[in-house]
Amino acid sequence: MASVSGASGLGNTSLRGFGGMATGIDRDSIIEQMTLGTTTKITNKKNDITSLQWKQEAYRNVIDKIINMEDNYFSYSSTTSLIDPSFFSKNQVTALGDSSVTKYITATGNSQMLDYISIRGVKQTASSAYMRSAEKETSNISFGKVNDTTGLDTEGTCRTSNLAGTSLQFGIWTDVDGGKFVNSASFTFPTSYKVEKKDQDGKVIGEETVTIDYTTADLSTAEGRKKLEDQLNEALQQSDTKLEGTKTFLKDVVKFKIDDSGNFQLEAGDKSAGGELRVKGFSSAMSALGFNAKKDGTTALDTSKGVSFADFNSHVDKTLEESSVKKQSLEEYMTGKKVSVTFGGQTKQIELITAKEAEAGVKSVEQLVENINKRLEDAFGKNNVVASSENGELTFKLGDNASEKTTLTVSSSSKEMRNLLGLENMSNKIDLDSSILSNWEKLGFDKNIKDEASRREALKDGLLINGVKIDINADTTVNQMMNAINSSKAGVKATYMSATNQFTLLASETGKGREISTSADAGADAATQAAANAATIIFGGTADKGFKAEDGKNAEIAVSYGNGEPTIVESTTNTINLEGLKITVSGEFGYDKAIDKYDSSKAITFNAKADADGAAERVKKFIDEYNALAGAVNSEMTTRPDKDYGPLTDEQKDEMSETSIENWEKKAKQGLLFGDSNLRGLSDSIQSMIVNMKKNGVDLKALQEIGISISDDIYSGGTLTFDETKFKDAMKNDPDKVASVICGNGDGKTGVIGTVNNVLSNYATRFSYKHGGSNGSLVEVAGTEKLSRSLTNNQIYKQLEQMQQDLETLKKRLSTEQDRYISQFSSMETLISQMNSQSSALSSLTGSM
Fold first, then answer.
1. If we measure between CA atoms, which residue out of 559, 607, 556 comes closest to residue 119?
2. Residue 451: left if φ>0, alpha if ψ -120 to 50, beta else—which one?
3. Secondary structure element (H or E) that encloses residue 509, with its range
4. Cα torsion 806, 807, 809, 810: sign
5. What DSSP line would sit under 755-812, residue for residue?
6. Is the pLDDT of residue 409 over 50?
7. Angle at CA 577, nearest 5°, toward 575 and 581?
8. Which is higher by pLDDT, 225 or 424?
9. What is the predicted pLDDT for the residue at 3?
10. What percent of the chain has a predicted confidence (pLDDT) above 90?
11. Helices H / strands E in the chain, number of each
12. pLDDT reported for residue 23
C-alpha cells in the first residue's frame, strides 16, 4: 500500500485510569503493543467493510443505468419511450385548404385512410350547458361603526390590543457552561385558530376559523374572562409546539388562567417539563400581560435567568384589560390611518384623518366626509368617487361622473382596522372575500328581510345545483361558495364576471344532454327546496336583467371518405377519431344555414410526415445511454486494482486534506470489479448484443441502413455508433422500415429495443414477474435504491451484516484485553508503590541509628 503515515488502530487515545505513577513506565504504549494483534484485525475488518461497500456502489452504478434505460425507453408510460412503433410513423399531420378555415382544424395520429379523408365543414361545435345570472345589485360602501351617536371624540370608542402577535418564550434554566436556557419553546398569541366544522350528524366536513377578541368589554365579567381564557388555551392546544430537544409539547406543561380579579396567570400543565419551566424575561408579551418586575416599588426582580411561574403571577400588577387593551376615540384611532380605494383600475391610499386635521379637531362625520372628499377628488378626479354621511355613517360610493358598471372597492390590510371600522374588503359589487351574509342584498336576496337570524336560516341548507347539495352557510365567503361548487359532484364550474357583476355556471362536459338546473324535484322536502331557492336567487334572474340559460350541444361535422358524399359525424366533444386520425375542431365553417348545404370549396384534406428530427434525437439519447452502460461495464471488468491503494483509517484521514482523501479514494475504488464473475455475464451479453438482435429478427443490413452499427473499436466493450444523417433520411423515406428495425413487427421479432430490454432485464429490472419474482441477478447481489425492498434483500447487505457483527466481537475482545492488562498494570503499580514506601521507611530507620 502506498505510504501514508498515521497512528495505530487505537490512535493516541488514553486508556482508562492512570498508569506509570509509581513505575514511570508508559503503560498505554505498552498495552497498545500488547493488543496490536486485535487492533490490526479491527482495522482490517473496517477496511474490508469499506471495500465491500465500495464494491456495492460500483454494482449499483451499473444497475441504476440499466433501470434508467428501462424507465426511459422500455416503458409505454414514458414520454421518451421507443417501444411503440407509432412513434416512428407519419404522425405529423397538416391540414390543407383555405387558410381561413384550416385554422379551425388540428389533427394527430396515423390512419391508412389519410389520403381519402376530408372535412367538408362544421355545422356546429360542441358546447357546454351554460347559465348566466341576472346582473347583481350594486351598493354603497359604509363604515358600520363610524357614527354620531357618541361623537368621534368620545374616549374609549375604539379598543385595540397590545397582546395579539406578541409571544411568551419558555425554557429551562441550567447553570452549565456559565448558564443558559435549554428545552426552549415559544407561544405567540394569535388572532384566531381553527376548529373542526361538523354537519348536523356530527361528521367533520372541514374547518372554520374562531377569532379571538382580546378587546372585548366582557373582560370585566367572569363569563367574558372565562371565554377568553378558554380561547387562549385552545389556541395553545392547537400550536403543537414542542420543548426543543424533547418529545414534550408546550401545551402539556403550561396553562393560561385569568383569575377573578382579571389578572393573567401561568399554571403548570398536566405533565412535567423535566425541570423548572420559566418564562424568559425578554418575552415581548410580558408588559401586555401586566407583568412588572418592579411591582410595588420593591427591588426589581432579576429576570436574566428567567421568571418562575410563581414570580410571574406575583408580579402582575394590572388586570389583563388594563395592560393589554388600548382605548381611543374614533378621531384618535383614525388619525394617520389609510384605506385602499380602487376605482377604474387605479388604486390610491386615502388617509381618513390627517395629523393636521386631528390637531384642529374632527368632531363629526360631516366634517370627516368633507376632508376625505378633497383627497378623493385629487386621487380620482371630480365626482367619480365620493364620500358621504348617510344615517350617521361614513359611506363611499360612485359619483355622478362614474359609470354604474365601474367597480369600486375600499379595503385595508389591517385586520384590526377592518374589524373596528366595520370594513371587510368591501366593494360596491359582489365582494368575493366577504361572507354571503355580508353580500345579502347584492346577491339578490330579499332586502326586506332585515333580521340576521332569518337571513342565516335561509342559507343554512346550502345550495342545490343539478340535484347535488352544496354545503355552504351564511358565513361562507363568495369565493368559498364557488370553490365548493367547483369541487362538488354537480358537474359545473362557477365563475364571477366582475365587469358585468354576474355569475356563470358552465357544465364541466360538453355535449347534448348536459343541462344545468337549480330546481328541486316535485315533492322535495323543505330543506332541499330551500337549497334550490337559494341557488336560484344567486344564479337565476330574468332575461331583461341579463339572465340566460342554454343546454349543451353536440358537434356536427361533415366528413367525406373519398366518395364525395359527406357523412355527418356527431360528437359530444369537439374531438373525433376517424380511422386512427384524431381531429379537433375549434370553429364553424363550410355550412350554409340558408340552404342547409356544405360548401365543397371549403373542404379540408390532410397530409402527414414522420417526425424525423424528434425520432433522431430520442434514438441518439438511447444509444448514448446504452454506450455509457457498455463503457461502465467494460471499465469495471478490465481495470486492474492498484494494491498500493485501499481504504484509509480515520487517523490517516486526519493527516490529509479533503482533496488528497478524494483523490486517494478515487484510486482505491478502481478495479474492485475486475474480472467479476457476476458482471461477466452482462459484459458478454453487451458485446454480443448484435448477435442477439439477429436472433430476434433484426435485419442487420437494415440496421446499418438506418444508421446504427457496432463500433469498430474492439476495446469499446460493445458500444454502438449512430449516423444521424442516415437515420433522418430513413425516417423521411421509409419510416415503417425504421419502426420495424427499432420496435420489431411481431411474430417473435422484438427489434432493437425489445432485444436490449430482454437482455438487460436479466441483470436489473423493476418488473420481477419477468424472471420468476427476481429483479435481476445484479440486484440480488447488491440491491438498489430504486427498488426499496432490495436494499435489505441482497447478498452484499447480508455479508455486511455479518462483517459488522464480527467487528463488534473484535471490539469487545479488545476492550476485554485492555481491561485485563490495565488490571495487571494497576496491581504492579500498587506492589511497587508499597515496596517504595517500605524502602523509604527502612531508609528512614537506618538514617536515625
1. 559
2. beta
3. strand 502-510
4. positive
5. HHHHHHTTT--S-GGGGTT---HHHHHH-BTTBGGGGGSSHHHHHHHHHHHHHHHHHH
6. yes
7. 110
8. 225
9. 47
10. 64
11. 24, 34
12. 60
Q: Residue 832: in which H helix or E strand, if any?
A: helix 795-848
**Any idea which residue has 461502465 for its cell?**
632
Percentage, residues of the chain above pLDDT 70:
94
pLDDT band at 9 (very low <50, low <70, confident <90, very high): very low
Residue of 681, 509, 585, 546 lying closest to 129 (CA atoms): 509
What pLDDT, on a 0 to 100 scale, did the predictor assign at position 18? 53
Q: DSSP secondary structure string, 697-732?
A: T--HHHHHHTTEEE-S-TTSSS-EEE-HHHHHHHHH
- Average pLDDT estimate for 347-365: 91
pLDDT at 7 over 50: no
The one-letter amino acid at 628: A
Query: How high is the pLDDT of residue 849?
Result: 54
Torsion of Cα atoms, 549 then 555 then 558 then 561, to 10°: -170
Alpha-carbon distance of 172 to 321, in angstroms, equals: 29
Strand-pairing partners, residue 577, are 582
Q: Which amino acid is at 840?
A: S
Q: Exposed, middle or buried: residue 145 (CB in 10 Å: 0-12, 13-18, 19+)?
A: middle
| 830, burial (CB in 10 Å: exposed 0-12, middle 13-18, buried 19+) | exposed
Beta bridge partners of 505: 131, 494
Look at 195-199, 594-598, 724-728 and tell me which has the smallest mean pLDDT. Answer: 195-199
Q: Which amino acid is at 823?
A: S
594 touches 157 (CB < 8 A): no
Name the nearest CA neighbour of 832 among 27, 29, 30, 34: 27
Is residue 491 within 8 Å of residue 545, measured between CB atoms? no
Please enumerate in sequence order all residues whose Cβ is within 8 A of that of 568, keeping only pairs 6 or more positions apart, or say none: 123, 556, 557, 558, 559
Q: Which residues pair with 327 in a beta bridge?
A: 159
Grid cell in block for residue 621: 439519447
C-alpha cell at 228: 377568553
Find the Cα–Cα–Cα–Cα dihedral 421, 426, 427, 430, rounded to 10°.
-140
Residue 195 above 90 pLDDT?
no
CB 667 within 8 A of CB 713: no
- Using only C-alpha atoms, the chain has a radius of gyration, in whole angstroms, of 42
Residue 1 has pLDDT above 70, yes or no: no
Compute how many other C-beta atoms are within 10 angstroms of the C-beta atom of residue 626: 22
The model's pLDDT over 278-322, given as tens digits with 9 standing for 90+, comes to 999 999 999 999 999 987 766 788 999 999 999 999 999 999 999
Q: Report the C-alpha gap between 419 and 413 in whole angstroms.
A: 11
Q: Are 687 and 637 in contact (CB under 8 A)?
A: no
pLDDT at 200: 66
pLDDT digits (tens, 9 = 90+) for 614-640: 999 999 999 999 999 999 999 999 999
Cα-based distances in Å from 551 to 466, 502, 506, 507, 554: 13, 19, 10, 9, 10
Question: Is residue 657 packed enough to be buried (19+ CB in 10 Å), middle (13-18) or exposed (0-12)?
Answer: exposed
Q: What values do phi and psi take at 471, rounded to 5?
A: -85, 100
CA dihedral (287, 293, 294, 300) in degrees, to 10, reads -150
**327: which residues sit within 8 A by CB, 6+ positions away?**
155, 156, 158, 159
Q: What is the 3-state secondary structure (H, E, C) of 551-593?
A: CCECEEEEEECCCCCCEEEEECCCEEEECCEEEEECCCECEEC
Q: Which has the closest alpha carbon to 750: 707, 71, 758, 765?
A: 758
The model's pTM is 0.59
Confidence band of 482 (pLDDT split at 50, 70, 90): very high
Q: Cβ atoms within 10 A of the Cβ of 263, count?
A: 20
Cell, residue 512: 347534448
By CB atoms closer than 10 A (0-12, 13-18, 19+), residue 404 is exposed
